[in-house]
Amino acid sequence: MSSKLPYPLAMLQRGESHDPFGLLGRHDDDQGSLVRAFMPSAERVDLDDLGEMQRIPNTDIFEFTLDRAQSDALPQHYSLSWIDKADGERHSAVSPYTFAPTLADLDLHLFGEGRHHHVYRLLGAHLIEIDGVPGCRFAVWAPAVKRASVVGDFNGWNGLRHPMRNRGGSGVWELFIPGLQAGDLYKFEFISRDGHRLLKADPYGQAMTLRPDTASRIAPPSDHQWQDGEWLTRREHWRWMQQPMSIYEVHPGSWRLSADGDFLDFHELADQLVPYVQDLGYTHIELLPVMEHPLDESWGYQVSGYFAPSARFGDPDGLRYLIDRCHQAGIGVILDWVPGHFPKDE
């Protein structure tokens, strides 16, 4: 690396920049614009249809200087194309560093006060569209790290590729990555204050891979059509303090197995468990933890994904289907949610 490289760019090259948006993307002045990209896996990078970007010697930082006419013609959300060192193929994507912050200041304020009642909508991975560009917004709370990044199959699990935006005193980091889709795998990579690299699954992820894998998975929007309107109407008028309850506690992984010895999925549980409990006359089913966990023998009490139904039993819509079937049968559902036991898995 050149000894003349400015300190902020040197920090970026080392993967320790606390403000990647202050360096990457488009930066305007009176004469035009400078577009900068950090592409550690690239042999060559091109800006939109303007041509090849220039590599700063001995770095993975690329720049392109635009005159006023070029700057005016460049789309707000421009694309970068690059030849990857690993496979030699050309790739193209809209730059994440062309987008403004996506999390509202009010949300961050309420979160900081501990009064945000829908944090799962704020943090985690959410498929959204910004200015007609589809992609995924990632957000994670990590107040004690120097750098946070999103890693996954889409960037070769390289933490230098997608450093996140720090949202100041909130401790939240966020990044919108265009082009990602439901099913893509990801984790967060952190650099601690003492320089250690940490790789973590998303604590607010809505789907995860099947054990022993530990990656988070971008969940698709729900396709489930709820049919429990009658149950919800009755629940509004249910005097639960004065009426009896009988609860059937069940561990989905051991209640009953399939003919080949596998766990029943959520749909199979709906077909078998609901009529069984209905016939016994119980008013409620209490499901022992169905949140993601690494160890079958723990019965779900060492949770690794509090907002992700376990892949052992299916996907989030499968759990919705099971709950819907219970409600249609007049059976309430209680979910065990265990914040007191943590696994060592990352």
At a glance:
With 346 residues, the protein is α+β, with helices and mostly antiparallel strands. 19% of the residues lie in helices and 30% in strands. The chain folds into three domains: 7-98, Immunoglobulin-like, CATH 2.60.40; 105-217, Immunoglobulins (Immunoglobulin-like, Sandwich); 229-335, Transcription Regulator spoIIAA (2-Layer Sandwich), CATH 3.30.750.90.
CATH architecture of the largest domain: Sandwich
User: Quick one: how many beta strands?
Assistant: 21
Instruction: Give the biggest beta sheet.
Output: 4 strands, antiparallel
How much strand content do the residues show? Answer: 25-35%
Shape: elongated
Derived from helix and strand composition plus strand pairing, the structural class reads alpha+beta
Helix content: 10-25%
Mean pLDDT: 92
CATH level 1 name of the largest domain: Mainly Beta
Catalogue the unreliable spans.
none
What is the assigned CATH homologous superfamily of the largest domain? Immunoglobulins
Radius of gyration: 24 Å
Task: List the helices and strands in order.
Answer: HEEEEEEHEEHHEEEEEEEEHEHHEEEHE
Number of domains: 3
CATH topology (fold) name of the largest domain: Immunoglobulin-like
**How widely separated are the two ends?**
33 Å
